Structures are given as structure tokens and as C-alpha cells.
């Protein structure tokens, strides 16, 4: 494995446990597939794991987050994929953001938050509006804990309001979504490579 090989982890925040199909999983898989050849990719469907409520790295008593956290810390790029419910990101996604809050307490040997230098992008699906609202919240949460967001770092699909069609029910992916998926993955890979070669300065030094 070369030093410039990227690793990407997708946290899929569907409310639907495996092995049932999920639109959020489908979009996450498409985002992972859009990264350059040779990228190491993995996805975790968070609802399949007993992730406890809280804002600590380990909430004890069988908490599954520490295992997921190891994967997060090992990844150069994080993909967060969420459905839209009542115009909001899922409760599973909110729990991910709350658990990531613990990372503010950890720094590297130069005093930088240890998620500095890592990149994050977002995927949103739903048969109602909300993708811009959700991605704005997700970007702020992820940036707060240290992730860098690339240009156009979101891919999404919204179906017609008041209808029951899901993303996974479509015969083919609309070109608009396919195009934004390719752009988000490409920009994330580009930015992650840049940050690996030129990390942020320590303690705000220029």
C-alpha cells in the first residue's frame, strides 16, 4: 500500500437495519464507488450497532461506538449518508454527530485537534425537501470537530413531495445526482491528498 492510498469510511445513518434495502445505503455505496481506483472503502450501517447516547468516546456498558471510532480515526475521508425525515436528518445521524463531539478533547503531538487533515462529505436522500438544510447542519457539525469540507461536498436526491417513491425504487440514478456524486467524491479525494501532503499548521501558526 502506497503512502498516497486513501481510505474512506461511510457511516450510513438509515433507520432501517440490515439486511433490508436502504436508499441511504445505496447513495453511500455510489459515493464510495466514485472514489479513484485503489481507494480503500468501507461502510458501516450505524443502526446495526448498539451506539449509546452520549458525548464521550466510550460510554461503556457494551457501547459499540469505540469500534466504529477506530474506523473513523483510520479513515482519510468520512462519508455521512442520511435519510430525510420530517425535513431533518435522522436520529441515527444526530447520534453520530453527538458522539463525534468527543473528538474535540483529543489533539495530536503538535496540539492540533486530531481530526484536522481529514475530509468529510455528505449524502442525503428523501421524498421531500430538506437536502440543503440537512447538509448545512452536517457541514457545520463535521467542520466543528475538525473535518474539512470540499467544494460541493454533498450529493443528494429528493423525490416529489407527498409521494412515496424512494431513491432505491428508481430505475436509474438521475444524471444530476450521479454528477454531484462524482464531483463530491473527486473533490474529497483531491482535498484529502493535499492535506496529507500539507497538514494544517500547529496552533494557528502560519
UniProtKB/TrEMBL annotation:
Every NADPH-dependent FMN reductase-like domain range: 9-147
Signal peptide: none
Domain of life: Bacteria
Protein name: Multimeric flavodoxin WrbA
Organism: Williamsia serinedens
Biological classification of the source: Bacteria, Bacillati, Actinomycetota, Actinomycetes, Mycobacteriales
